[in-house]
Amino acid sequence: MNLLMFSCVQATEIIEKQFYTEITLSEKVKLYLHRNMCDACREYYGQSVFLDQFLRRYKEKNVKRELSEDEKKAIISHLEKLQ
Amino acid sequence: MKELVKNKSVSDWVYAYSDELYSWALFKTSSEDVAKDLVQETFVAAFDSFPTFKGKGEGSARAWLYSILRNKFIDHYRKSIREMPLRQHDGDDFMNDLFDNGGQWRKSERPHAWDDEKMLLDDEDFNTTFKGCLNNLPEIWHYCIKSKFFEQKESNEVCQALNITPSNLWQILHRAKLHLRKCLDQYWFNV
Question: CA torsion B153→B154→B160→B164, rounded to 10°?
Fold first, then answer.
C-alpha cells in the first residue's frame, strides 16, 4: 500500500468519517491527494455530501399505522392460552 | 377472580394501546413482522408481570407498556448484533462487488455525475425512491442511519445501545452510504 496515497475504499471511508468526527492531518492530506487524481472519488464526495444533507433534512413520516381487528384478537387469544 | 381481572385489563389494553405501540415499533424497526412480534411480546411480558404493576393506576399503564416495548426493542437489536459475524460477511461481499482487491472502484461501479441532484430535495417521487432504498438496507445499518440522522443521537449513544465501537459505527455508516448511493444510482439516476 502506498504510504502517501489512499485507495478508493480508504478514501470513501475517510470521506464518510469526516462527517462524524475530526480527521487527522495525514488523513486530510491523503484525501486531498486522492481526490485530485481520482474522478470517481471526486464524484463520490459530492454525492456523499448531497446524501448527508438529504438525510439530515429527511423526515420519515411517522404515519399512524394500525393493527387489524384480527391481529388484535390473535394477540388476545395468545395471551389467553398462556394461563 | 384475580385471573379474570388480569385478563380483562390486558385485553382492554390490547384495544387501547396496541395501535400506538405498533406505530412506534414500526417506525423504529421498519419491519411489519418484527413490529408485530415486539408488540405481542410486550403484552405477554405485561401479562406475566401484571401483579407487580397492579394498583399503580390507569394513567401509568401506557407508560409501563412503552417501557416494556422499549426494552424489547433494545433486546431485539442486541440480538441482531450478536448475529453480526454473518452480517459483517454479507457486508464484505457487498464491498467486493464495489471495489477490486487493490481497493479501487470496479469499472462498472465508478460513480458518475448525477444530474441536478440539488433540485431533488423536495421532489416527492425522489423521496419515495429514497425511502425504498433506505428500507433496503440491512436492518442494523438502517438503525444506525436512523439514530444518527433522524433522531440525531450522539455516536456514543448509538454505540452504547448496540454495544459496538465507534469504528464499527463508522464502518456501518460508510457501507450504508455506499449502499444508498448505489441504490439511488440504479433506481433513480440511471433509469
Answer: 110
Closest partner residue to A75 (CB to CB) among B43, B170, B184 is B43
Q: Which cell numbers in the block locate residue A50? A: 448531497
Task: Note whether B36 contacts A80, CB cutoff 8 Å.
Answer: no
Nearest CA in chain A to B118: A50
Q: What is the pLDDT of residues B110-160, one digit of tens each?
A: 999 998 877 888 888 898 889 889 888 888 888 899 888 888 888 899 888
Which value does ipTM take for this structure? 0.78
Among the partner-chain residues A7, A71, A72, the one whose CB lies closest to the CB of B103 is A7
Using an 8 Å CB-CB cutoff, list chain B residues near A43: 110-113
Q: Is B180 helix (H, G, I), strand (E, B) or coil?
A: helix
Spell out the alpha helix ranges (H) of B30-137: 32-48, 50-53, 59-82, 84-98, 124-135
The single-letter code of the amino acid at A37 is M
- Taking the CA of residue B128 as centre, how many other CA atoms within 13 Å lie in the half-sphere pointing to its CB? 3
pTM summary value: 0.74
